[in-house]
Structure formats: C-alpha cells, structure tokens
C-alpha cells in the first residue's frame, strides 16, 4: 500500500507542530509542514491580530512565490490545517491550494473560538471535515465536530513514573502572559499560597513590544512590570520535567475561550492534579473532583482535591486523549455523507 502523504499547516506555537509531525511519521505517514503565517516574528503576529488586512500583502507574496510553487510538486492525501490566532491564509489562498491538491481531503482543526477567529468561517466551504476544541462552537455550528486537544508522549512518560515521596513544587504554572490569564493566575497563586506554598510561576512574554502593547491596552497590566516576565520559552522536555516535580498545575484559558487548554490534557497524560478557572472541564469524562479543582475565587482547603491523592482513571480514558488518538480522529474517513 502506498504511504499516505499528509501536509500539516499549523502555528509554530511552542513547537506542538513538531509533536504532531513526529507522531504522524511514527504512525507510518509521510508528513510535511507549512507554517500558518509568513513570519513568526512578534511584530507580524501582533499586526495580524489587530487586522488581517495589515499582513495581506506580505502573506500574498509568500504564498505566490514560495508556498504555491512547492504545492505543485507533490500530491497529498490529506491537508490538515490547525488554525489558531496566527492563521494568515486568506480564503482565496485556501481555494487555490484546493485547486492544486485536487485529490486531497482538506481537514480543519480550530484551535481557538470563533469569538477570537471570526474570519475562520470564510474558509469553511473549502474543507471536507471541520473540528473545533470549543464546545460552544460545536453546539452552534452543525459543520463542526467537538474534539479536545491532546497530550504527547513526554507527558505519557511522566504519568508512568512513580511520583516522588515529596514534591519540589506544590503548584506550577508556565504559559504566555495574555492579559486575563496573567491576572487570573496571579490572583489564584496568591490565594492558594497558604495551602500550596511552594510555587513555580512562569509568565512568558514574547517581546518588549508585546508587553508595551498590553500595557497600553489591557487594564490587567496597569500594575505590571516588565521584570515580572520571562523572555525565554521553556523547552518541551524541561516543561514535562516540571510536571514531574509538581503536585498540581495551574491553568486559565484566554479571554473568549471555552475549549480546554492543552495544559489540561497534559495534566491528564502526566497524571497530575489540575486547578483551573474553566468550568467547562466538568463536562468531560475524565473529570474527578479529587483530580481537578475549578477555582472560583475562594479556595477551600478542606476540599477532597487538597486532602486526597490523585485518582487513577480507566486506561481507555487516557488513550482517548493521547496525540495518537487525536490524529486518528482527524484523519478518519467519515462513515457517512456530510462534513462531520
């Protein structure tokens, strides 16, 4: 049987695209990658978030001179697009890609809410299947199928290790310092300090320009100081090690998001407790009060989450949210007509 060829178009975001490529190749696919925008610089990404019109010219030049000629050299079985806030392909570009890849299925995975990606519906007609991590979007759009994110093999390995007798950290947070997330994590960490005193809090800031932008536009940043933020990304291997050293992980979604963050699924794979501000997590089959605490402003130290140990789940639940299973869902041939 001929090896199936997959083209992945995805953001650089913390190198998750590399995890997807590695897993695709481990599963026997021939996998290639395209970045979802013409530049990964903080300036270009900021311009794209302000208005896609600001990056239209640069993206058009990149598409015409580099992307489209490359697409004509190989025919793919599937073009898989993982679309977040940096996605910069305009509808006419997706249309031209589909005209070039006449035998390919086009699959879209929306890694953000429609509230944050209002332009994404303009490319829906060019896709054969559409998935979203946002439950509200799945309920309101019949073309979309709900599919949560995943955890990779690094977190699976952490989950298989026997926890140390004592934890280095009672709670850990690592993430990009989006305004609401920055405020909520700081408030949560302060409120939890009496019962979880050993804390590792790491707010990542891509650039000083990004900090200045938030300082000027977001009330959450009024008292923020640039020295609070870290300029270096923590590599995936080191982040998984932090999970292994931590009793629980703190989490807060971005403004406008209801879908589960990837940190939520990484906690599941690593078998670590989670404290999150997202109440949607209660609706998933892996939710257990002993493992997940939905923070609403006043932590209760007598709650079973703080007093009990991690509760093991059935193996089938862990398998369901692995990256291997995620790939299986997005590449599965539909059993009936229709997009989903």
Molecular structure report:
The protein has 340 residues and is of the alpha/beta class. The C terminus is likely disordered. Helix 3 runs parallel beside helix 4 and helix 6 runs parallel beside helix 9. The protein is built from 13 helices and eleven strands.
Taking Cα atoms only, what radius of gyration do you get, to the nearest Å?
A: 21 Å
Estimate what percentage of residues fall within beta strands.
15-25%
Classification by helices and strands = alpha/beta
Order of strands across the widest beta sheet?
A: 2-1-3-4-5-6
User: Quick one: overall form?
Assistant: globular
Q: What is the helix/strand order?
A: EHEHHEHEEHEHEHEHHEHEEHHH
Give the termini separation: 26 Å
Number of helices: 13
In a nutshell, what does this entry contain?
The chain has 340 residues and is of the alpha/beta class.
Structure keywords:
alpha/beta, 5-stranded parallel β-sheet, 13 helices, 36% helix
Describe how the helices and strands are arranged.
Layout: E1 5-10, H1 16-26, E2 30-35, H2 42-50, H3 56-71, E3 78-83, H4 91-100, E4 105-110, E5 129-132, H5 135-140, E6 144-146, H6 153-160, E7 169-176, H7 179-192, E8 199-204, H8 208-217, H9 236-244, E9 246-251, H10 262-270, E10 273-276, E11 292-294, H11 304-307, H12 315-320, H13 323-331
Helix pairs in contact: 3-4, 6-9, 6-10
